[in-house]
Amino acid sequence: MGLFDGKKGVVLGVANDRSIAWAIAKEILEQGGECGFTHLPDKADDPKQKNRRRVSRLTDDYENARFLIPMNVQQDDDIASVMNTAAETFGKIDFLLHSIAFASLEDLRGDTVETSREGFKLAMEISAYSLVAVANAAKDIMNPASAIATMTYFGGEKCVPGYNVMGICKAALDASVRYLAYDLGPRGIRVNAISAGPLKTLASSAVGAKGMESLYQHMSPLGRNITHAEVGRVGAFMLSSMSDGITGELLHVDAGYNAMGSPGRLLDQLASNK
Ligand SMILES: NC(=O)c1ccc[n+]([C@@H]2O[C@H](COP(=O)([O-])OP(=O)(O)OC[C@H]3O[C@@H](n4cnc5c(N)ncnc54)[C@H](O)[C@@H]3O)[C@@H](O)[C@H]2O)c1
Fold first, then answer.
1. 21 is in which domain, residue-wise?
2. For residue 195, is it within any domain?
3. CA diameter of the chain
4. Which of 58, 119, 142, 206 has the smallest C-beta neighbourhood within 10 Å, fewest atoms?
5. What is the pLDDT of residues 234-246, one digit of tens each?
6. Is residue 3 part of a domain?
């Protein structure tokens, strides 16, 4: 018996085997859930269809991975087509994972104060508004007692230099979770965010997660960083009926880093280096 036996849902945001969305989806697939996936659209004349291939390489191994279709979350037609495909394949769905973010490198590398108007709008549209858009498009095909989860980061709660405009997007995303939880609560749809510590992925390389990993090792109560598998399990939990009393919540999977009010053991190390 798997936790997701008989459960069906849609996973948005797998780019490759390091994607957090894949860590969560793998857990769901292995626990018996049926999933539909999306990938970033490839250019029609690109014979390699790289975006699709990177994802199909993963999903092809699972019979319960039921569809893989292109979606750019900036396009309402693409979002509608995903939900139509989900309705045709599954009827109703039990879970929806949103694991999507983007900001231009220019805006991430410069100071936040210099963020361009276009860069701000683009980052907000893809990284925050998209949750509202997909929740709205999915709500009519979601079962009562179903769940939506999104991925966030501590940089939306506190200033994490280098995270810049993405921190502002995460603050908007975190607030969206609470308002969507309120709107969708009467339908029995829960909406939550999972705040992961830094993991090596395509997206995190753009926001300089590398330096943060060693900071977590030195500062977090557990004295280490987290793993993809740990986030995978918590993501699956938040999308399962095991968490059915939780909504509007932001759950940290960060080895306790967010609980610290000082650099902790890092101070001892600095003192011994003096
Ligand atoms: N990796 C980390 O350290 C970390 C920590 C906390 C939160 N997160 C968040 O987790 C989520 C997933 O990121 P990840 O680290 O797994 O990296 P990733 O690069 O594997 O995933 C980001 C996904 O966003 C998708 N995407 C970007 N623009 C899109 C668009 N216009 N339309 C549709 N999809 C689009 C990409 O195709 C990709 O699948 C993001 O929200 C990220 O901010 C990551």
1. 8-273
2. yes
3. 65
4. 206
5. 999 999 999 999 9
6. no
| Closest residue by CA, ligand 1 atom 20 | 19
Any ligand 1 atom below 6 A from CB of 243: no
Euclidean distance between CA atoms 224 and 214, whole angstroms: 8
CA distance readout (Å), 74 to 4, 54, 80, 130: 30, 21, 11, 7
Sign of CA dihedral 212, 114, 73, 138: positive
Residues in the chain: 274
* pLDDT tens profile 185-233: 999 999 999 999 999 999 988 776 667 888 999 999 999 999 999 999 9
DSSP-based three-state secondary structure for 231 = helix
- In degrees, rounded to 5, the angle at the alpha carbon of residue 77 between the alpha carbons of residues 75 and 81 is 120
How far apart, in whole angstroms, are the C-alpha atoms of residue 52 and residue 254? 31
Any atom of ligand 1 within 6 Å of the Cβ of 203? yes
Report the DSSP pairing between strands 93-98 and 250-253.
unpaired
- Catalytic annotation, residues: 153, 163
User: What is the domain count for the chain?
Assistant: 1
**At 196, is the secondary structure helix, strand, or coil?**
strand
DSSP structural state of residue 223: S
Closest by CA to 160, choosing from 112, 202, 203, is: 112
Closest by Cα among 142, 136, 51 to 92: 142
pTM of the model: 0.97
SS3 state of residue 150: strand
Kindly report the CATH number assigned to the domain that includes residue 130: 3.40.50.720
Is 163 domain-assigned?
A: yes
List Cβ neighbours of 247 (8 Å cut-off, separation of 6 or more): 181, 185, 190, 191, 192
Domain assignment present for residue 17? The answer is yes
Pocket test of ligand 1: the residue of 16, 38, 40, 225 to mutate, having most ligand atoms within 8 Å of its CB, is 40
